[in-house]
Amino acid sequence: QVQLVESGGGLVQPGGSLRLSCAASGIFFRINNMGWYRQAPGKERELVAVTSSGGSANYADSVKGRFTVSRDNAKNTVYLQMNSLKPDDTAVYYCNAVVNHWGRNGDYWGQGTQVTVSS
C-alpha cells in the first residue's frame, strides 16, 4: 500500500502563487509517473501536470507557462509550482502516483487539497 500526503493549498489572490507538495510513503519498487489532477465544482477531474521517473513532463494547455511540475526521487515527492493564478484555477488538487510493486503497477491518489483563487 502507498500513501500520498499533499500540502500547500490555500486561498490566494489572482496573479498570486502557490506551491503544492505531495510525498509518497509505503513499500514499492519504484514510482513511475507522478503528478497532479484537479476537480472544480460540477466538473470532471482533469490532468494538470504529470512527470515521469526520467523527468519529462506534460501539462494541460490551460496551465502551460504558468505551472511547473518537478519531483525529488530521493524523497518520493512531487511539487507543483503555480504562478499567475487565475480564478479558473480554483479546484481541489489531487496528487496521483503510478507505482511499480515489482512488476505490478498500482494507481494511488492523495486526499486532495483545496486551492481557491479569489480577490
Please give a structural write-up.
- The chain is 0% helix and 60% strand.
- It is elongated.
- Strands 2, 4, 5, 6, 9, 10 and 11 form a 7-stranded mixed β-sheet that branches.
- The chain has no helices and 11 strands.
- With 119 residues, the protein is mostly beta strands.
Shape: elongated
Question: Using DSSP, what is the number of strands?
Answer: 11
Low-confidence stretches: none
Helix content: under 10%
Q: Label the structural class.
A: mainly beta
Radius of gyration: 14 Å
Strand content: over 45%
Distance between the termini: 40 Å
Largest sheet: 7 strands, mixed
Number of helices: 0
Give the mean pLDDT: 96
Write the SSE topology.
Elements: E1 2-7, E2 10-12, E3 18-26, E4 30-39, E5 46-51, E6 57-59, E7 67-72, E8 77-82, E9 91-101, E10 104-109, E11 113-117
Parallel strand pairs: 2-11
Antiparallel strand pairs: 1-3, 3-8, 4-5, 4-9, 5-6, 7-8, 9-10, 9-11
